[in-house]
Hints:
By secondary structure, this protein is mainly alpha-helical.
Amino acid sequence: xxxxxxxxxxxxxxxxxRPALGPLLPAADIADVAEAFHRAxxxxxxxxxxxxxxxxxxxxxxxxxxxxSAVQFITLIEDHLxxxxxVYERAFPLDEDVDLETFIHNRELYHxxxxxxxxxxxxxxxxxxxxxxxxxxxxxxxxxxxAVEGRKPFxxxxxxxxxxxxxxxxxxxxxxxxxxxxxxxxxxxVLADVLGYLARDEARHFAFLADVVERYLRLYGDAVVxxxxxxxxxxxxxxxxxxxxxxxxxxxxxxxxRYDHTDAYGHLIRIVNHAVDARTDRVDELVRFVDACxxxxxxxPS
Length: 302
Ligand SMILES: [Fe+2]
Ligand SMILES: [Fe+2]
């Protein structure tokens, strides 16, 4: 797989093509899906870090070592948001690097991206707050620890718009599943509340991306099969190549709850099946490939 670390991936000919390559969905399609995304979280259903969680009773003493480790791990992943947003800014620019039609598409996508970014930043703030309120970390050391990883460059090894969106789809679903599994076992009910809110948000992020990828398949069929296949062939969770000791860490937290991106592949197969009425050889091959990539051993990094 090509390096995710942008320090080795941005040289001429070695890094991803920016802006992202088409095909792009018509702007009206993106607008429809973004509207549905906003409708799915009306103000009455929103939560916030300040008032939705009983921070005063958070207690890391109720967590096992594995659970505490899992919280530290997901805090790092969520806190890397500026790196993730940077990918979208480069891939879907809103300036003169793109022609008018592409700008119109990117402007519609931005209605999703900006809200998504706000929600992911809320996740980072909630996990930071949990660590401090529960006694797991002191704020100054945690800020510094997050900065060590946060300042590392982040890039995805994909050139096509549909690949970037399919990557995010898998990642959102894998994260949602992980938060639900972790929520079911953690000893501190305050952490369970946090994870419940996070999982709900990730489910909505996934729903947006699922709708987008489904429309890509409907509209472009075989032409987008390879860019989607590439995502599955090369998949790594974000930061897998930059966090020090990532795999050791991933294996340690696997005893607590399984963090396995291949859990999301069944959902990807459903999207493909739903989108494509007349199956072609290429689509069949994609489904077989995604299915073969599903992990059968709990917790094994792949
Ligand atoms: Fe998140
Ligand atoms: Fe998310």
